[in-house]
Amino acid sequence: QVTLPSLAHREVARALAAEAAAAVPLLPSAVPVDVADFRNSAGTAVGTLDVRRGEPASSIDFMLHSSLHCKVPNGAIDITSVLIFLNALTDAPHFLMEFIQGSPTSMVVILDLLPRKDLALHPEYLQKYYEHTHLDKQREKIEELPQTRPYRSPSLFVRSACSPTAVSVTIDCGQGGEGTLEEIVCGHLASAVKEVLQIWLHSCARDTSEMEEAEREIMIKRDQVVRSKSIEVDLTANLPRMFGPDVSGHIIAEIRKTFGVQLQEA
Amino acid sequence: QVTLPSLAHREVARALAAEAAAAVPLLPSAVPVDVADFRNSAGTAVGTLDVRRGEPASSIDFMLHSSLHCKVPNGAIDITSVLIFLNALTDAPHFLMEFIQGSPTSMVVILDLLPRKDLALHPEYLQKYYEHTHLDKQREKIEELPQTRPYRSPSLFVRSACSPTAVSVTIDCGQGGEGTLEEIVCGHLASAVKEVLQIWLHSCARDTSEMEEAEREIMIKRDQVVRSKSIEVDLTANLPRMFGPDVSGHIIAEIRKTFGVQLQEA
Question: Is residue A260, in this structure, part of any structural domain at all?
């Protein structure tokens, strides 16, 4: 039976999730066994999903950590995500990290503090969370690597939801570049990911914000749109192809529950 | 006395402004003579500024067309902009084009339909003006050129104000590449610019939108922030260095008047 292969990027994500879990108030893991660990009937795809809710009265909504592995005709695709989302006690950005590895020598990296307000309407928010934290330096460090080039999500919505400091790159080390990719993942990438987590822990995770009720309502609506659209773009477009309708339906329902965006019919 | 040198990019902008002016209802030019044409006392910098307001009751606020030329120690910098901004009768995007040429072989291009709503909160707006118009294809065509690489504005605010389909590139043709740059400007760039203008004329320029009053108020506030910040980032940071405080103060005051963001003290 197929198992999750060990990969440098997966180890970086594991270490990051552990570091985050030690620093923010989380309840124990709360997903059913068949969601924590799942596979398709053909034995070509396997995945894990861990969700921990934030402690009551904290500003943490949840931490989600998932790993997918799926054999494809010429190899395999491995996707690892760590999301830490905040609730409406704060307007501070969410933490988002996603690695999509399509070959042993190349991968896509998305790393961002997801804004929860319209940055063009709220320059003071941009200043507080993005300028004063020097977040853009982490993006610069990654983009300086000769193996990286910008990655544009095909979804204009995903691009719109990201901050202007988002790392969104393809790292491509070319033929024979397996070792180079591993070095970059364990070196530059691991340290950028750690730095961004530190910035988030320091400026966002413990933040609570005074907000006017009207402002909070817009933020809650915006959060709902971003959560629903990302499930639509990311999961409902891809999981069924990998795991078939039954398994993927079950997993997507769990993620919808976590995100608080259940379907009417669910 | 220094004059505006003829440059391929300036000709492209002139043709574009003429095409736009023939297609949208504009009043005659309305800037004082010393704003239409200005220079610094040292004779190292020269500029032109033309502003035409939209006809009353139209959704056009103004068209601004400016050209700057400034000698610097190792050559000259030439900046040409065409902005066509809409008023609050519509929420359709503004048209924005800016060329910044720092040498005979390289230049920065910014070309966008500037959104007037928070795209992450309004996916239907994103769909209407950006997805359905296939605007992203124009960005792709420019970025496919081997001489281009992404340009990131140092201002996070400018990056936040642009759409996810914005062309924002450096075109660098390297040593001896004067002819190549001219070819790209008159070929690929001129046609992308024309296409984007056509999209804007077709989907935005004649659009009027039903909006709820609260929505319109947010849009008006957002417009004000974007206009003020772009004057701050773009003009007050650069013009004084090029033209000295007196000339630049006079020009900036005129642009503030056009943008409808006058200073309290003005």
Answer: no
- Sign for the CA dihedral angle at A229, A159, A18, A20 comes to negative
b/e map B14-28, b = 16+ CB within 10 Å: eebbeebbebbebee
Which residues are B82's β-sheet partners?
B65, B97
Is there a domain that residue B255 lies in?
no
- Interval A29-73: pLDDT, tens: 989 999 999 999 999 999 999 999 999 999 999 999 999 999 999
Six token digits for residue B178: 């004067």
- Helix, strand or coil, per DSSP, at residue B103: strand
How many other C-beta atoms can be found within 10 angstroms of the C-beta atom of residue A247? Answer: 20
Contact B165, B135 (CB under 8 A): yes
Per the CB < 8 A criterion, the answer to whether B72 and B53 are in contact is no
pLDDT at A264: 53
Q: A38: which strand partners?
A: A47
Give the CATH number, domain containing residue A89.
3.40.1500.20
Task: Tell me how close the Cα of A66 comes to any Cα of chain B, in angstroms.
Answer: 24
Which residue's entry shows tokens 């500003």? Answer: A59
Best CA proximity match to A214, nearest among A222, A203, A206, A225: A222
Distance CA A14, CA B120 (A): 29
Residues of chain B with pLDDT under 70: 263-266
Chain B residues lying within 8 Å of A226, measured CB to CB:
120
Q: Which two tokens stand for residue B104?
A: 């005979």
Q: Out of B131, B163, B222, whose CB is closest to A121?
A: B222
pLDDT tens figures, A2-32: 889 999 999 999 999 999 999 999 999 989 9
The number of folded domains in chain B is 1
* pLDDT of residue A265 exceeding 80: no
Structural domain of B26: 8-211
Mean pLDDT of A114-137: 97
Q: Residue B261: what pLDDT?
A: 87
The per-residue pLDDT for range A191-240, each reduced to its tens digit, is 999 999 999 999 999 877 888 999 999 999 999 999 999 888 877 778 99
The CA-based dihedral angle spanning residues A25, A29, A30, A31, taken in that order and rounded to the nearest 10 degrees: 140
In a domain, A125, yes or no: yes
Q: Do A126 and B156 touch (CB under 8 A)?
A: yes
pLDDT surpasses 50 at A115? yes
Q: CA of B154, closest CA in chain A: separation in Å?
A: 10
In a domain, A226, yes or no: no
Say how far apart CA B108 and CA B98 lie, in whole Å.
Answer: 8
Check if the interface score ipTM surpasses 0.90. yes
CA dist B173 and B168 (Å) reads 16
Residue A119 is nearest to which of B136, B160, B163, comparing CB atoms?
A: B160
Name the closest residue on chain A to residue B117, using Cα atoms. Answer: A118
